[in-house]
Every structure is written in structure tokens, then in C-alpha cells.
Amino acid sequence: MDIITSTSEEDHTSSTREAEVIALPLGYEGPIEVGDTLLVHHNVFKFYNDMKGRQQSGKSFFRDDLFFVDTEQFYMYRHDGEWHAYDRYCFVQPVAPEDWILMKPLKEEPLTGIMRYPNEALTSMGVKAGDKVTFKPDSEYEFSVDGEKMYRMYDHQITTILDGV
């Protein structure tokens, strides 16, 4: 078992990625409610050191443990225990390398995965959770969702449905 931890403020891989919704913007009419959980960009909770080494808050900081989250800073929300992809984002789980004539010394099958959280646009095109899909190169942005490795990507980066799993 390998355990790698980091306490570096500069290391985005160990930053907090989940936020509880405490309040909604005035006039908001959408599916997200107070109490839901957002899966956010690593910079939401970011603090940095200025040129003199003093810790400064990032642009999302409001006060105490409260942060503003812009609509472009979160990708999924959990409502009533279920995750839902938001806006143009979807989440794909990588798969182990498939048997092939040639040996592939890889941990994951390239450009292939299982759709776990499609968004509304993908669902309207027939893509559903559990479908084996292919995606464009360099579209993988790694997240951990409930302890599972997932790639966040845009819906237009999904290229093909291979088959249902």
C-alpha cells in the first residue's frame, strides 16, 4: 500500500474539493439547494503567500470558513445523497487495460472509461451512466469522487459510446 500525503499549500492534489452550500444567490432558480455538496475547483479554498511571505486569501474567500463559489468553479453537486453533473461537465471512471495482441504496460486503458455521471446534454444524446465511452486526448482532469478516481471532462470531449456495461 502506498500512502502519499502533502502539506504543501502549492500542491493542488491534496486540497479540499467538497463544499457545503450555506446560501444561494438572490434570484437563483436551479436544482442546487442549501445543504447540498459541491465538487469544486482546487482554487476555491486557496490561500497563498505574498512576496513578503504573509499568507493572503484567494479571491473566493469571504470570511471565517465561508467562500464564494462561482458557477465556473464547481462541476458536480450532491443532492439527497446522489451526485449530479453540472452544466457542461461529466465524470468518467478510467478502466484497466484490455487484453490485446500487444502488451500495454499501462495502468489504465488510454482514452477509454465508464461514464459515471453524464450531464443533461449527454443524456439527451443517449449517453447514460455505465456506458463505456471514449474521449479526446488530454481531456482528463483527475478527481476523487467518494474515494473513486474519476476524470472530469466537458461533454464535447466524449467521442463514442462503445457499449453498455
Task: Chart the SSEs and their pairings.
Blueprint: E1 18-20, E2 37-40, E3 47-49, E4 55-57, E5 61-63, E6 66-67, E7 74-79, E8 82-85, E9 89-94, E10 112-117, H1 120-124, E11 131-135, E12 141-145, E13 148-154, E14 158-164
Antiparallel strand pairs: 1-2, 2-7, 3-4, 5-6, 7-8, 9-10, 9-13, 10-11, 11-14, 12-13
Describe this structure in words.
With 165 residues, the chain is mostly beta strands. It folds into two domains: 12-83, no CATH class; 88-164, 10 Kd Chaperonin, Protein Cpn10, Chain O (Roll). 3% of the residues lie in helices and 39% in strands. The protein has one helix and 14 strands, in the order ββββββββββαββββ. It has a six-stranded antiparallel beta sheet, with no helix packed on it. A four-stranded antiparallel beta sheet has the order 1-2-7-8, with no helix packed on it. β12 and β13 (148-154) form a beta hairpin. The chain starts with 17 loop residues before the first strand and ends with a strand. The mean pLDDT is 89.
Number of individual domains: 2
Shape: globular
CATH topology of the largest domain: 10 Kd Chaperonin, Protein Cpn10, Chain O
- Stretches where pLDDT is under 50 for at least 5 consecutive residues are none
Strand line-up of the largest beta sheet: 12-13-9-10-11-14
Give the mean pLDDT.
89
